[in-house]
Amino acid sequence: MGSKRRTVCRGGIVAFVLALTLSYNARASASDELSIGEGQARFVWETFARLNAPAEECSTKWECWMTKAYLFETCEPEWGSPAWVRRLVRLTQEEHGALEYAKTKKLPEAERMRLQSSLEETLQEVRMNQKAFEWIDDHQLRLLEKMQQRYLNYCCKPGYYSARAEFPLGSMFVEASWKPIDPEQKDKYYTIESSELKGQLLGLVGLHLSSKVFSNWLWATWEHVDNPHRFEYGIMPDPLVPAQRFDIFVDQGLCQKDPSEEDDGQKACFWMHYELNGVQVSFMDRQGNPLVLSNSVFETSNPESSCMSCHARSTIGAKDTHLDLFRPRSLGPPDPSWFNDTPFPSKPFLQFDFVNFLRDVKPCEEICGDGSPHCVD
Fold first, then answer.
1. Strand runs labelled E in the chain
2. S-S: 126 plus which of 68, 106, 191, 267, CB 3.0-4.6 Å?
3. Could you read off the pLDDT of 317-336 as tens digits, one per residue?
4. CA distance 39 to 123
């Protein structure tokens, strides 16, 4: 069931991903993976700048990537302009795990109200680059029936290992979070006008990147400096000073240098109002302690969390069951017993290479309609 594809700026996209991969491999070694070294920080800031650099057909490069909403709601998805039309969603408290978190932590009423308010005003979107989309489409993993078949191959037949999902190197995903802002604050945010909120001005308040530059991916997350609860979450010190970040932004066309200004024009560039929370490529530090890295926007209900530990729980099990992504404390490496080859009917979970949104796939007939030939094996 291959889809029709239009190759839009494919050479540029491939070159971009290859450049990022080579850049990381050149700057980061095994000794870098437990904290943010300067080379690692520079790599992810350059990635941030390249992703947010202006594009011919979109405001930024990542906004020309396919949306998760389009992928899972289109019978024959194509790479190109229909795929990148913005579709913002408001996550429920259940999806964020907020109710379970509040119950477990026995949060006071004021804190529960803060969680609820934060969720109610936040809109999010997930996008993927062309390499990630094509792998999902080629393996038909945007359809629930194909996911379930892969699971049955994994748990119940010889050669289960070959059924495990493994995205190709160069796959990238971006998750963005937006909130309504006062127009007077526009100069401090990257902004869009929301069709979901009748043209209301939205400011980018969080950006999360997962990039498969090697097998366990690279995770980086950013927040706007004015997010009120940012410092309550897992943050790693950034070794790059603002002037270094500004130079990166200038090189990518995000900022303009103005020698007449004392700060060379840093204050005039809204991208300077975004901070790196951290980078993660390992579950543990050198002493064996679980690493904590979170974002006050994406992990509203779970400040003691880890990008890798949470995404390692991206799975499917029997009858479309999944490991819970939103445990109150999700840190350290996964439990091997979740994925072992215990014979049926113990039914271990099938891991989907840290890509947690694959759990949201829908039945073929719901996407393509009853009796569609696309739904016949």
1. 66-67, 123-128, 172-180, 191-194, 200-211, 218-224, 274-280, 315-316, 350-351
2. 68
3. 777 677 776 554 578 888 77
4. 33
Q: Which amino acid is at 215?
A: S
pTM of the model: 0.83
Structure tokens belonging to residue 77: 């998805």
Residue 23 pLDDT grade (very low, low, confident, very high; cuts 50, 70, 90): very low
Handedness of CA 343, 346, 347, 350 (dihedral sign): negative
Pairing of strands 191-194, 172-180: unpaired
Contact 328, 105 (CB under 8 A): yes
From the centroid of its chain, how far is CA 201?
23
Tokens of 351: 């891991």
Which tokens sit at 296? 């006050």
Q: Reduced to 3 states, what is the DSSP secondary structure of residue 217?
A: coil
Burial 236-259 (b: 16+ CB within 10 A, else e): bebebeeeebbbbbbebebbeeee
Percent of the chain surpassing pLDDT 90: 31
- Are 212 and 170 in contact, with CB atoms under 8 Å apart? yes
Residue 77 contacts residue 141 (beta carbons within 8 Å): no
Paired residues of 274 in beta bridges? 224
Q: Report the distance separating Cα 49 and Cα 246, nearest Å.
A: 10
What whole-number distance in Å separates Cα of residue 338 and Cα of residue 353? 14
Q: How far apart are CA 178 and CA 191, in angstroms?
A: 9
Tell me the per-residue pLDDT of 95-110, one tens digit each, with 9 for 90 and over: 555 555 555 556 666 6
pLDDT at 289 > cutoff 90: no
